[in-house]
Amino acid sequence: MKRLHWMRNNKAWVLLGGLALMIKLVSFFPGVVEKYYTRGVYVLTSKAQRLLLGWLPFSVGDLFYAAVIVFLIIWCIRAIRALLHRGQRNVRWRSGWMRFLFALLLLYVVFYALWGLNYSRQGIAAQFGLSDQEVTRQDLDTLVQLLHNRINRDITLVPLGERTLLSDRSLLFKQAEDAYRMAEKAYPFLDSRPGSVKASLFGELMNYTGVQGYYNPFTGEAQVNTTIPAFLLPSVVTHEIGHQVGYGMESEANFLSFLTSRQHPSIHFQYATDFVMYAYASGMLFLMDSAKVKQYDRTLHPQVRKDFAAYRAFYKKYENRIEAVIDWLYGSYLRANNQPAGERAYDEVVFWLVGWYKKYGKEAI
Fold it and tell me: Which residue pairs, CB below 8 angstroms and at least 24 apart, start in 316-319?
């Protein structure tokens, strides 16, 4: 009887606990997640979010996060004041912790219902028939050589004077969405309409964390840090839209950036993606054959080497101790969501790229 009485008085706890348990159980069945959540529930909820908020010129998600941060700061200040003025015995610790745990449980349910279950879907492996098995040194060498040749060709076609156009946010976001429209003709499941890509309000601040962009599951907005070097922006935008259309894994979002940019009429999009993919592939090959990578790097076009130098200098300017903590926290988050490599999960796009050229030929790279 006492248990029934507790359940009647704690209906919200029971409801949220039941939903959390159901979400966790469903996550163990990728086929179910793929069919009923990613291609069903998520399509409807994410499109509704983008339809509702995508037309607004500012980031609603960033305002939401800012409000939460302010609330937490005020809550902490009040808690400290209560402790100092009332004494530890008179502070209602139990009720405070219960409210805190309830908020965490609510956050868990909302996050995984709106987005998080995509971490448990079948994804690219099933849709494109690609393997994510370990690759050999020769596989990596072949991939790096292909990307090396592409990036050296790309840069000769890039009108450097036009790079300033990438700072035109509306044009950049439209071109990125167009990239998905073109890819959608061959792969209907890449439908990203309606669009909802926003420049983050935290741009400069994000540089101190190393974050280039993120997807906000609570508002359906793809957030982009537009203060990073302009030549990288096409890759970042197409990556974030990849999350928006339902790909949780960082390696998969990277692969969609590659796939959607490959046939884009703007050479800026092709160059940005090839630049990033070369960095990932050469970084992985470096662990196996550093001499070979140094040889590839030495034969990069002078402008490509300048871009790499500019990229390193940009982030060196923002290096700080907090970034290491954030990297650890985010790496832990990724490991908790089916990405055991943590921050290295981004690099695993290399597995998909190797699988892609093995399936469709080297010219597909």
Answer: 317/207, 318/207, 318/208, 318/210
